[in-house]
Every structure is written in C-alpha cells, then in structure tokens.
Amino acid sequence: MTARPKLPNPIDSVVLASLDTPDGWLEYPLGNDVIEGNPDTRMKLLRTVGVKTPHKSVAFFTSRPAKFHWRFENDEAFVLIEGRIAITMDTGERFEMVAGDAVSIPAGHTGVCEVFEFSRKFTVVTSGIAD
C-alpha cells in the first residue's frame, strides 16, 4: 500500500471541514492493492493525532467503483454517507453496506472492499492506550 498523506493538525485544535467543498481533498493512492477498477480514492483529513492516542485519523473518504485490498492496521469505524459497498473480511464474513450503515473493525484484520457506486464515508481510525 502506498504511504498515506498526513497533515500537521495541532493536537488541541478544533477542525471544521465540509464534505461538499472542493478544498482540502488529497489523493489517496492504493497502488498495487487495486484488484479492478479505478477507485480514484480521496480523503479530507480533520485530525492526525489524538490527545490520548498516538494515532487518530478522522477523515472523509471517497471512492469510485472498484475492488481493492484493505488492511485494518488500527481500529477503524466508519459511517457510509453515500453509496453502496461490501467488505469481505479475512475471516470470510461479508458486510454489505448502504448509506446510513456503520461498522467498527478491530485492528489486525484484512479484507477486500468492493465499491459498487460512488461512495463517501466518515471514518475514525485509532490506535494506542488511553489514560
């Protein structure tokens, strides 16, 4: 997987972002993880570190129809805002999602994501020990 971009948001900052404005979107290349299609994935980061966690990514994420591998290196939870996707986990479990659905996946899993139509999600990725 290609290295993901990081932005230096101060740890105690309040960040406001809109899903519907063109500013702040970054390319999120998936490299050799793409199985088929051209996902043209993009993200808009709101936070890259947490007050109590060494890693916290809070972001909007978009993808066009495609199929690609995904590694859940940290705990990840997201709400699908628009679109339709499926995630087939390394355990064989398959989760089909439509707008309004949410999922929480613990670190250490891998899966294959299938994006059936343009999709947008709001995601929070965390790792570390809270006080």
UniProtKB/TrEMBL annotation:
Protein name, UniProt field: (S)-ureidoglycine aminohydrolase cupin domain-containing protein
A Pfam family assignment: Cupin_3
Residue ranges of domain (S)-ureidoglycine aminohydrolase cupin in the record: 57-121
InterPro entries linked: RmlC-like_jellyroll, RmlC_Cupin_sf, UGlyAH_Cupin_dom
Record field: transmembrane: none
